Amino acid sequence: MTGRRPRPVAGGGSVLDPAVVEALLTRPHDRDPLGDLTEREREVLALVAQGRSNGAIATRLVVSERTVETHVATILSKLGLEPAPDDHRRVLAAMAFLRAGGVSSPGDPEAGRDAQDRRSRP
User: Fold this and answer.
1) Could you please report the per-residue DSSP string of 3-62?
2) Do 90 and 82 meet the contact criterion of CB atoms below 8 Å apart?
């Protein structure tokens, strides 16, 4: 004890260190989970969210399948989706995309575009 008498909680005091409170209020989940993805990675993720195969994504973006595989691996890593026996990481990545506001459907002519880019248009 430092010799100071702590203020009672009922009187508006706190039993938590202000730094702890600040850390709890600004947890990482408050930031955009897709914020670390490049524009191209967001395009790939939008197509993954549509259920497209790597081959279909490669054709659509005019890149090799190997390039798509690399993008998907990078996306999964950036989203913190490590291999686990009970999880399908592509599905979890697609869910993260949709939760973040990326609206994508198979017939969407804007598919693969950054969701923010679409929202900012008139």
Assistant:
1) SPPPPPGGGT--SS-HHHHHHHHT-GGGS-TTTTS-HHHHHHHHHHHTT--HHHHHHHHT
2) no
Q: How far apart are CA 108 and CA 70, in angstroms?
A: 24
Q: Count CB atoms within 10 A of the CB of residue 69.
A: 13
More confident residue, 96 or 27: 96
What is the predicted pLDDT for the residue at 51?
Answer: 95
Q: How many residues does the chain have?
A: 122
Residues contacting residue 104 through CB under 8 Å, at least 6 positions apart = 46, 47, 49, 50, 97, 98, 111, 112, 115
* Residue 64 token pair: 């090799």
Closest CA to 54 of 71, 37, 39: 71
Full-model pTM:
0.62
Cα 77 from Cα 96, distance rounded (Å): 13
Question: What gap in Å lies between CA 12 and CA 29, rounded to an integer?
Answer: 28
Distance, CA of 22 to CA of 98 (rounded, Å): 29
Residues 6 or more apart whose Cβ sits within 8 Å of residue 103: 115, 118
